[in-house]
Amino acid sequence: MANRPKSRKKKVAVRYVVPPVQRALRLLRYIADGHTVKSPSKAAKELSINRTTLTRLIATLEAERMIERRHDAEGYRLGIGMATLTARALFSADIVQVADPILAQLSNHLGLSSHLGILEGRDVIYVVRRVPNLHLVSNVRIGSRLPAHASSIGRVILANMPPEQVSALYASVRLERVTDKTATTLPALLRQAARDRQVGLAWSDSNFEIGISSVAAPVFDHTGAVTGGINVSGASRSLEGAARRKKIGDALLEAAHEISRRIGYMALDDAPVSGGAKTGRRNARP
Predict the structure, then answer these.
(1) Helical axes 51-63 vs 19-32, angle rounded to 10°
(2) 176 pLDDT higher than 90
(3) Pairwise CA distance, residues 191 & 181, whole Å
(4) Which of the four pLDDT bands, split at 50, 70 and 90, describes residue 113?
(5) CATH architecture observed for domain 83-262
(6) Taking CA 149 as the corner, what is the angle to CA 145 and CA 150, rounded to the nearest 5 degrees?
(7) Which CA distances in Å does 68 have to 20, 55, 75?
(8) How far is residue 2 from each of residues 5, 7, 8, 14, 131, measured CA to CA in Å?
(9) Pick the CATH number of 4-78 from 3.40.50.1000, 3.40.50.300, 1.10.10.10, 3.40.640.10
């Protein structure tokens, strides 16, 4: 008898479900998982959606900027409208609330722009941005998306994922060349990830934009899995010199460690290690 009210409530909830909205959400999740809908017929079959309905859903979601055409014109990816909604939702999440003041302090300490990014498909979505009180600051905005394989935050996230997971994510994918330093094949990407994992940081010297350098560190959740990355960036001259780079690397690792600790991650050694060294993480990815 005690279960009847709960069962009745569930039936009422199901009765008010709107199938067209469900189909739109299924399509968004499908695209977020890396499917480009390059072949509408294949997508319609896999989603169990009528092809005409799928075409209308795509047109509607594109008009609302929830999806957008890929740069290579081969299918779709999540758009700026979805990225903005994601960023707003994440601002109420623990990692964003925790990271925001830490990145503000880091930015002012180093005189560099700082960011928090998370992986969405094969892109990094920027969800926190802090800038110092200087004229030259980062142009990256909250909600911006950059290709993970070419950006420092994306690289450090990929470096701390299992290699087989990275391989599956980029299987049969053509990697966009951003600069002549961009990894454009899966073997090159895996080698890059191995180097970044060995160093413990992902340094980028004009790798993404000429004249701009950055360095990223991973953030881990309570399970020991990489859940995002933080970086600092600025004009290349502001990241030059061994002493300067060590200071930046140490401060960045300390900030990443503090964010990870506050969202539940426990490391073997609570003291961050100097930039360029391994960090001795519990449950760290190989």
Answers:
(1) 70
(2) no
(3) 13
(4) very high
(5) 2-Layer Sandwich (3.30)
(6) 75
(7) 20, 14, 9
(8) 7, 10, 11, 20, 55
(9) 1.10.10.10
